[in-house]
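The data are quoted verbatim here:
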Amino acid sequence: MTRVSISGGAGFLGLHLARRVLADGGSVRTLDVAPLEDAELERGVEEVRGDIRSERDARLLAEGADVLVHAAAALPIQSSRAAIRSVNVEGTATVLAAALESGVRRVVLISSTAVYGVPEKHPIEEDDPLVGVGWYGESKIEAEQLAGDFGRRGLDVVVIRPKTFVGPERLGVFEILFDWIRDGRRIPILGDGKNLYQLLAVEDLVDAVARAFDAPVAATALNIGAGSFGTVRDDLQALIDHAGSGSRLQPVPVGPTEVALRALELARLSPLAEWHYKTAHKDSFVSIERARELLGCEPRLSNAETLCATYDWYLEHLDEMRSAVTTHRVPWNQQALGLLKRVA
């Protein structure tokens, strides 16, 4: 039986991964500042409430684990640069040190394709330059550098770089999109929407992470994204058609919109961070050949299939999604974007 510890266990990925490990016959311990709030998981998971920046809490997480998945992270729109770095860099250092001290067999570090910034070359490959956009991208690069440092000290670390992943219980900016489509509003898209933009189904990410527990991929960074995806326009139109919505896609000019969104972000009035609007109108897709070769994984769901399935889940759970905290599992405050909604 594989003993798996998950930092950020109450988060979107953490919940889905815990369910997969339990279904596969393993045991799960989680660490998070937030509660699991899932009665079934609470019966099968050893839940540690705490902070990854605490040496004590990190040791509790790592002790006795075969595999530690470090999925905890501060979101790009949550706080200041210092606060994001505190969690994503200093917290990562604390968790990796605990894993090394405890003799954890393998650590799977959940990074992000935000580390690539806004590249001109596609598909993006793992050895391409790391030039992250904004505080979040920068912090993820530093976290990966820490993984390399600990790897040289003998810790087996595999880095997973997922595209933006979507699925049941995933909200964030998608809650805004789904809300607007449900109401039949116009959906603004930066530029003409003809850029290719790759997403990822959470179940496909979970499969890749689970395969990384034992695969011969030490000290390796692996991209993971949907194997099938279209343009922003095509995938959003597929979602609108699936929803039976009267929404229409409304192109907006890139330059002025970026300036406006940057101002709203700095004023803490928008849930959209620099990473979102710097990449939304450009091609953004990665090569997943290395993951296919080394993990033997093949993402099953396309962008459109993932968006439609997540929209259906959103409709089914609409009444229970009115909580307050900003995470990938609960609604984000639309604030200034709500003004746009009312005139859309």
The radius of gyration is 19 Å. The CA atoms of residues 17 and 23 lie 10 Å apart.
